[in-house]
Design goal:
The complex is a heterodimer. Helix content of chain A is 65%, strand content 0%. Chain A is an all-alpha fold. The two termini of chain A are 23 Å apart. By secondary structure, chain B is an alpha+beta fold. Chain B is 26% helix and 33% strand. In chain B, a hairpin with a 4-residue loop joins β6 and β7. The longest helix of chain B has 34 residues. The interface between A and B is large, with 103 and 94 residues.
Chain lengths: 542, 340
């Protein structure tokens, strides 16, 4: 099925490939840069996770002191969230959103490059704390007054603030770019309700970034003023309010959860239909559920603050529980998509099914935490750690791997090895559940999070040991993935334009696509233009 | 995939049956209510879990691709979609209503509660009784809070530094200890312990280096035993300051920003000497001298700003010893004392 002509021979002018990658404004190359950069931070933050789990394997301090431990979990959380999971989906979105809507590039290619290049800068600033006497150690939530100068002296915390402000600014620039692209650059026929679900989730995600990120950036600057110029925003000893920080942080922080998870849910909603050979069941309901989650996400922030004693519990319990409704709708839509489908279990499909099964657990534990009295027991225990990892890892990070297996052939023109992909999935799935399922139980038994050590007679040792073993299994599961990517890039089989029998427009061009993406587009009459083209003689248009 | 399913089928029930998935035995009337609510919500969650994962496994097995035919293209069904929007709505409403009932009954306050003031600080707790008795822990020696069982106890939770959180797992309720600004009332936590016993607790809000060492116990006794204890809590009477001879060797030390001014002190061996300790901040510190694990001298706590105390220390053999603040046994508040 040749829908495109050959790749144009050369770019605008001759450059060495190094200079080409450093100066590129092509959305696909920038997307690859985002993904590569994010995996670097994933690697580093993953090592920090192993430090944390090693120390907690058995009681007593064996490997690191308290201060190093606190730096480890602070940097683990900060880097995983701000420099891995959010930007890597920006990377995939950068690559595929213009393709999916039939556009030649992003609306502002230079701003696109700028918002990418601010990431290594911001991440570098955050990590630089290690070089100046210790990285930030106040937790990724940076609660006040603990992060004030008098309790956290040292430049690590200031670098953390500066780095996050840079990363936040990059996100804001990126979101303006995405929103403009999606609203103004769609191909003829690509109405809003014919957009692929992934584009919809990116649209809502970027709107959340635009509304939430300025709040945290402002709060970080206020904290910087407190620390360095005698401000009094958050320090109660000089008239500030430490709870104000929590409000500002979580007003950003809860939408941030959906910023992380929505693109992954979008990826699932692309992969399940393709490998079931059915359309997504209830496309419009799915879109409205996504928009609903986005809107609700701004009214639930104080469920992170139930135990502070100063928030109105019924309102936030109610609003938080409401999120279960649009989320439930999504689960039913996915199950109905599988129903009477024709399922084939590629690695991408395995990861997508893994997300459905793991994110479900994160959703259920989230509803438990929404109930204020239950939260009084579980808040700040390992139950919360388990919950957030079922959402961020079982949902979002599994979504990263699903995306990688799904779009790698498009990005590289090569197929990944399916056997290695299945081994990767199996090891990761087992390791993930070993690590985090027992943490629910640790939390229910009362083990607080963020402690460097625990008593030998607390009864937590066996479960911590299982959790640590699981963490190392997760680390091992990355080996087949890396081998797979490297060997497939070198001598993988050719992918062709459309190895999966895809639905959306990125499969209607070459792999990898040429500069400016398309020579011609198929007609767009539904959310599955490539499917319609392939089956134009069999299936009447709905 | 099949092996995975089999593994999960064996492992998950085994984990569930281990019992750790349920909260600890509740020891307060409030905890009993929270536990019931937990079980209700857990049961709802379990139904959803089994239903969704069950269908997922069924679909994975039943709808495997067997031939190349295109399945029927269902795009949606409004009736079905309305039904499955209503189902989670009902679950959510059940959850909300039951939560509010529980919240109402565990938040009730009584007028005749025994009031104990709890102060969290980096990194331990002080418990103050209205008789004037108080007990302060150190990371190496956590305090016990003696309380009456069977009657309401109300804790007034204060902090002067960072946010802590008072948490006893067997009570199933925690409350943050927040350094509120001027004019804002401190948080309170009320509970009625159902049976005497010793219950572990610890700080649940990350508060810096020795967060993990902010442990304590709650020692619940019958009302009569509590009353007897409160009469005579066996308070260690503060030892009178021994008079210091005039020509005693004096070495100076101060503390600020939770750090000693120096980490090396040198004193003459085999004669008494004085550590003149100045605490420059409003956080309590002390100085104690250790020979490995053995305590040679334990200094009285002092709280600044700008408070000075003389610790008279008995003669030491020549050698190296460790001096440390018992409240903050971190590297910044540890040093080497050399007697020569």
């Amino acid at each position: 099925m040749a829908t495109t002509t050959a790749t144009p021979g050369s770019s605008a002018y001759e450059r060495s490939w190094v200079l080409d990658w450093l100066t590129t404004v092509d959305h696909k190359k920038i997307g690859v840069l985002y993904i590569a950069n994010s995996f670097l931070f994933f690697f580093f933050a993953g090592l920090l996770a192993l430090v944390i789990r090693s120390e907690l394997a058995v009681p007593g301090l064996q490997f690191v002191d308290e201060s190093t431990f606190n730096q480890s979990f602070t940097m683990h959380g900060t880097l995983m969230i701000f420099l891995f999971i959010v930007p890597i989906f920006s990377g995939f979105a950068n690559y595929v959103v213009p393709l999916m809507i039939g556009a030649p590039d992003m609306a502002f290619p230079r701003i696109n490059a700028l918002s990418f290049w601010m990431l290594p800068l911001g991440g570098g600033l955050i990590i630089a704390g290690y070089l100046v006497g210790g990285a930030a150690a106040g937790g990724w939530t940076g609660y006040n007054p603990l992060t004030q100068e008098r309790f956290s002296p040292g430049d690590g915390t200031d670098l953390w603030i500066m780095g996050l402000a840079v990363v936040g600014t990059a996100s804001i620039l990126g979101s303006v770019n995405f929103l403009t692209t999606i609203f103004k650059m769609r191909a003829p026929g690509m109405t809003l309700f014919r957009m692929p679900i992934f584009v919809w989730t990116v649209l809502v995600t970027q709107a959340l970034i635009l509304l939430a990120t300025p709040v945290i950036t402002a709060a970080l600057i206020a904290l910087f003023i407190d620390r360095n110029y005698g401000g009094s925003f958050f320090d109660p000893s000089v008239g500030g309010d430490p709870i104000l920080w929590q409000h500002l942080f979580w007003f950003f922080g809860h939408p941030e959860v959906y910023i992380v998870i929505l693109p992954a849910l979008g990826v699932v909603s692309e992969i399940l239909p393709v490998f079931s050979r059915k359309p997504l069941f209830g496309y419009a309901a799915f879109v409205w559920a996504t928009i609903g989650i986005g809107l609700l996400s701004f009214s639930v922030w104080a469920h992170h603050m139930f135990t502070t004693g100063v928030v109105f519990l019924p309102f936030f319990t109610f609003m938080t529980a409401l999120i279960a409704i649009p989320t439930g709708v999504k689960f039913f839509n996915w199950l109905a998509t599988l129903w009477r489908g024709s399922l084939v279990f590629t690695s991408a499909m395995l990861f997508a099914l893994g997300i459905v099964s793991m994110f479900l657990i994160g959703g259920i534990s989230g509803v438990m935490l929404a109930s204020a009295p239950v939260d009084f027991h579980l808040q700040d225990t390992y139950f919360v750690v388990a919950h957030l990892h079922y959402v961020f890892f079982g949902g979002a990070a599994m979504g990263v791997f699903a995306s990688a297996y799904y779009w790698f052939p498009k990005m590289s023109g090569k197929l990944l090895n399916e056997t290695l992909g299945r081994i990767h999935f199996a090891l990761l799935f087992i390791g993930f559940n070993m690590t985090f399922f027992v943490q629910h139980m640790l939390g229910i038994q009362g083990m607080p999070r963020r402690i460097a050590d625990y008593a030998p007679d607390a009864g937590w040792t066996e479960m911590n040991l299982i959790s640590t073993a699981g963490a190392f299994l997760i680390a091992v599961s990355m080996v087949p993935f890396v081998i797979n990517v490297v060997t497939s890039l070198m001598n993988g089989r050719k992918a062709g334009d459309d190895p999966w029998e895809g639905n959306t427009l990125e499969w209607a061009t070459t792999s990898p696509p040429p500069t400016y993406n398309f020579d011609s587009l198929p007609p767009i009459r539904s959310e599955r233009p490539v499917f319609d083209l392939r089956h134009r003689d069999e299936v009447p248009h709905p | 995939m099949k092996q995975l399913i089999r593994l999960a089928a064996v492992a998950l029930p085994a984990l569930l049956l281990s019992g750790c998935i349920f909260p600890p035995e509740p020891k307060t009337t409030e905890a009993e209510e929270v536990r019931i609510l937990f079980l209700v919500i857990f049961a709802l969650g379990a139904i959803v879990f089994v239903g969704v994962e069950g269908f997922l496994l069924y679909a994975v097995v039943r709808y495997r691709r067997r031939d190349d035919r295109l399945p029927v293209q269902h795009h949606g069904n409004t009736k079905v979609e309305i039904v499955w929007t209503v189902i989670p709505t009902i679950i959510v409403l059940i959850l909300f209503v039951t939560s509010m009932f529980t919240l109402g009954s565990i938040s009730a306050r009584s007028d005749d509660a025994t009031v104990i003031e709890v102060e969290g600080f980096q990194w331990q707790w002080t418990f103050r009784y209205d008789t004037g008795y108080e007990v302060t822990g150190t990371p190496g020696d956590p305090p016990a809070m003696v309380v009456p069982a069977g009657v309401p106890v109300r804790l007034v939770l204060r902090s002067d530094d960072v946010i802590h959180s008072f948490y006893v797992p067997a009570f199933l309720v925690k409350k943050d200890v927040v350094p509120f600004g001027q004019g804002q009332a401190p948080n309170e936590l009320e509970f009625t312990i159902t049976e005497p016993g010793i219950y572990r607790g610890q700080c649940a809000e990350f508060c810096g280096d020795l967060h993990a060492d902010m442990t304590f116990t709650v020692d619940a006794r019958s009302e009569a035993e509590y009353a007897a204890w409160l009469e005579d809590p066996g308070e260690p009477t503060p030892t009178a300051q021994p008079s210091i001879p005039e020509d005693t060797f004096v070495v100076e030390l101060s503390a600020e920003n939770i750090a000693f001014s120096t980490h090396e002190l040198t004193v003459p061996a085999n004669e008494p000497f004085v550590i003149r300790f100045t605490n420059l901040e409003s956080v309590q510190h002390n100085v104690s001298v250790y020979d490995n694990e053995e305590t040679l001298f334990e200094g009285q706590a002092v709280t600044g700003p700008d408070a000075t105390i003389d610790y008279l220390i008995q003669p030491l053999d020549a050698g190296e010893y460790t001096f440390i603040c018992d409240f903050h046994p971190i590297a910044e508040m540890t040093g080497t004392l050399t007697a020569e």
